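Researcher: Go.
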Amino acid sequence: MSNFWKYTFLFLCCHACAPQTEEGGEQAAPTNPNNFKSELVLSEVSLEPVVESIHLMGSVQTHPDKVWEYVSLVKGVVTEVHFSLGDAVQKGQVLAEVKSVELSHLQSQLETIEASIRAAKRNLEAVMSMHGDKLASDKDLAEAQSSLAAFTAEKHRIEKDLSMYGAHVGKGVFQIKSPATGIITSKSINAGMQLSDESGVLFTVANLDKLWVMANVYASNIPSIREGMKVAITTLSYPGEVFYGAITAIAPVMDEYEKVLKARIELDNINHKLKPGMVVDVNAFKDYNDTLATIPVRSIIFSDHKNYVLVSKGQDIELRKVVIAAQNDSNCYIAQGVSPGEKVIIKNQLLIFEQLKNHEN
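Model: Structure:
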């Protein structure tokens, strides 16, 4: 094979280096086979732990335990709105104000009950005085105490309602406050809007510090995907940046519409780079607890349902059939065909391979 490769190198070098005529033909030019050989790029076979990745597609979703939807508890008219879609808000921050007859009704109830409490206190004081002079029975005293307690309990109930609704008595409005710290991810409330029982969700606050990625596991990958697998996530929005996580749960049934299993991945969303709705690539890593000869994926030549590599042996190059035990996006792990320390060609190997096939034919 040594003589063959001398001719092959000469052919390749002539093909690559020959100057072109205006008509596109080649002109004869002196060449040196070593020029081509010096351009070959080699990679040394190494012994590395086997890390195979399984590629899945997924989408970013909000963490359901970190999402709060606000539905109005009162009827009325929205007078002011202090936020927009996408705004960052703090828990307790006033987001909108509502004028409502319910506020007037609750305030009236509160005033009435406070008057009743004042009267019940005066009555209790009188009964206690009479009881001390033996002019009122124990029953009369108990009834006076019970009446005051009932009025006081009713006042506390009304005050809780006012607090729950966010009543601002001075301004005469109900204030809608943010239920949590986060980002406004949906909004359907505007100034002048009439609130009713059918108004539905007025806005949604989501904390994006933690997110879920729901990965699609197709039928062919089901045997290989399991809980606890580490994953690397990439997206077109951030080329070259990788987000790491792990599969925390796998749905027990296929999705009715997509016909896939959903694998859940929980992520810390540092700097809020990932956005709900993003489509992402997910590489799930299988751990073999083994080491094998490792070569770059780009060194593999696939032909006639077999895998080959070109091994540089000094002045010669050998064509080797290899058996791939596992692979990921960058590496192939070889069970048979090459040994650690050998060097494989990772550039122009397809061109050399074709010349070898033509020579053999």
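Model: The radius of gyration is 38 Å.
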